[in-house]
Amino acid sequence: MRILVPVKRVIDFNVRPRIKADGSGLDLANVKMAMNPFDEIALEEAVRLKESGEAAEVIVVSVGPAKAQDTLRTALAMGADRAILVEHDADVEPLAVAKILKEIIAETSPDLVILGKQAIDDDANQTGQILAGLLTWPQGAFASRLSINGGKIDVTREVDGGQETVRLSLPAIITADLRLNEPRYASLPNIMKAKKQHVTIKSPADYGVDCTARLKTLKLAEPPARSAGIKVPDAEALAVKIKEMGVA
C-alpha cells in the first residue's frame, strides 16, 4: 500500500501571531514556521502503518513557497520516503489545493491519503472533504483511531456525544484529529540524512490548476481585550448584577 500525506507550512503553534499594522494580514517576518500539527499527526500515522508492514511507501506533498522544502525535509526525517513541493508563493485556497492533490494522486496512485483535519492558520477544515468529493472516494474525517482490515480501513471518529466507527473501502481519504497519535521527534541522524534527499519541485501550472484567489481578506484585527471580573458578596447580589448587565 502507498500512502500520500499532504503537509502545510504554518506559523509554529508556540508563536503568538502578529497582525500587520494595516490589518491586511499576518506579519511573517522573522517568525518561526513549522509543519501544521494536524498534518504532523497524519504523517506519524502513515509512518506507523509503514513500520507495521501495512504500507510500503509514504509520499509527502506540500503546496507553498520554496521555504516549504524545510517542512518536507522534516517529514522525510520523520520517516517519509519521498517528497513533492508544488511551489507557489501566494496563499492557495483549499479548492485549488484539492485540485492539485487530485492530479498528484493520479500521478502517484496512492491507496490511502491521510491529512490533518485542518490547518491552524486559516482553520478552513475543507481540503480533505473537497478532495474526497473530487475523487468520489470514501472519507473518514476527524479520525481518532485507524485499523486496516484487508482491503478495508476502520476509522473511529469523534462525533457529538461520543464516537463512531465506519468501515471504508480503499482507496480512501482520512483526516486526522488530535487524539489519533503522538508524533515522534525526528532524530539528528535522520535530519542530516533528509538534508541530502531529493525534493521534486513542481508548479500548479504543471497540473493545470489555476490558483487565483476567489476570496479576499478585508481586514484582520486582534480580539478585544478581556475586561476585569467583578466580585459580588452573595447569590442575591449576583442576580442583581446579571439583571443590570442585561444578560438575563
Automatic annotation (TrEMBL):
<dbReference type="InterPro" id="IPR000049">
    <property type="entry name" value="ET-Flavoprotein_bsu_CS"/>
</dbReference>
<feature type="domain" description="Electron transfer flavoprotein alpha/beta-subunit N-terminal">
    <location>
        <begin position="23"/>
        <end position="211"/>
    </location>
</feature>
<dbReference type="InterPro" id="IPR012255">
    <property type="entry name" value="ETF_b"/>
</dbReference>
<keyword id="KW-0813">Transport</keyword>
<dbReference type="Pfam" id="PF01012">
    <property type="entry name" value="ETF"/>
</dbReference>
<comment type="similarity">
    <text>Belongs to the ETF beta-subunit/FixA family.</text>
</comment>
<dbReference type="InterPro" id="IPR014729">
    <property type="entry name" value="Rossmann-like_a/b/a_fold"/>
</dbReference>
<protein>
    <recommendedName>
        <fullName>Electron transfer flavoprotein subunit beta</fullName>
    </recommendedName>
</protein>
<dbReference type="InterPro" id="IPR014730">
    <property type="entry name" value="ETF_a/b_N"/>
</dbReference>
<keyword id="KW-0249">Electron transport</keyword>
<dbReference type="InterPro" id="IPR033948">
    <property type="entry name" value="ETF_beta_N"/>
</dbReference>
